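The protein record quoted in full:

***
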Amino acid sequence: MINKEEIEQLKQALAASPNNNYIRTMLIKKMQHHSEFLDEMEGLLQEAIRSEPNNIELKSILIDTYFKQKKRSACIVLAEAIADKSQIPLDTRARIAKCYLRENNRDAARNLYQGIVQENATYEDEELDSAFRMRASTPDDDGMDGSLFTKPNIKFADVGGMDDVKREIDLKIIKPLENAELFASYGKKAGGGILLYGPPGCGKTFIAKATAGEINANFINIGLEDVLDMWYGNSEKNLNKFFTLARQHKPCVIFIDEVDALGAKRSDARQSGGKNVIHQFLSEMDGIAASNDGVLVIGATNAPWHVDSAFRRPGRFDRIIFVPPPDEKSKEKIIELKLEGKPLSSIDYKKIAKKTLGYSGADINAMIDIAVEKILEEAMETGVPKPIATNDLLEVTKKHPASTVDWFTTAKNYALFANKSGLYDAVLKYLK
């Protein structure tokens, strides 16, 4: 029940002492569970956070407020500014995950929700469970059939930019598959493994699908939730079944996202169950029980430094390709594609691309979303809608830094101090 008298008294106290953040916080906490104060709370919270920029509790309440207002991009931007997500309450983290999910960023949503479940195994959320919860299958449950396959209808021509990446995949993977008999005469098998690494949101999944499209191959997209199982030994069975299906329907591309979680360094695996999954993964890639000829395994990771070095031996992920953020020409194409169908005035795509240094495809999507939300907010106040203009997008770039910055900071350290094998030479070249 709302204690309006108490809230009014706090408002009066704050009016008399506008710099008193303690009173402002008390007022916020009295209002936070009542939807009628949402708009008023937003202003109070922004003012409070300006006084206490490191106050995670206030930022969490503001995220909850934005979520109730359906300002998903604002939730995401505020959440991404908090380095240690473990300080955010579980319910608030779940709301952030739902924002990512509704914005079609399934990887970010899944990562966040898996962290919640690891922290509290009993945590449940209907929307997120439906999308990501690990299957509680019985040991006898097969649950795998041909419906897992897709035939991607995209090819390299549909991928904007990424010319170096496409060229390397073409030379090392596509040409051997297209000329399998020639390669076989020299004792070379078609297939193998590619590890794509780079900052998040830069199109690793898209290029994997395009690779399958180029060779007219079946495509299996494997996520963590498809492999990991609560029953001991079932995770290994799931991996085996995916590889068995791929061998039966070759040519086939198996795409494994977040491969660092399945192929983590064995020294980092705390439980024997985790080590068993890694050993099974290595066994499947080696094709010990059956030949992998005609099966291409593409792994994607944002953290190659966490992948066990055994996966980089010949015959496994022996082709390692850096997927950088899109270049200016690619960004122009991405921006044009993302703006398609929206009301526009003249847009200087080249100017925007130059101002989005280091932006990933996901950053471009967020930039456009934030600009649209601001235009909609103004339209609701004035009653006059306006088309999206170049300046609307440029204004967002001033406040929305590239999400790849933190990744490159970490990657640079590995490239400078842990690069004996030359794995990160491409990162150093890009940074120059």
In short: DSSP finds 21 helices and five strands in the chain. The longest strand covers residues 295-301.
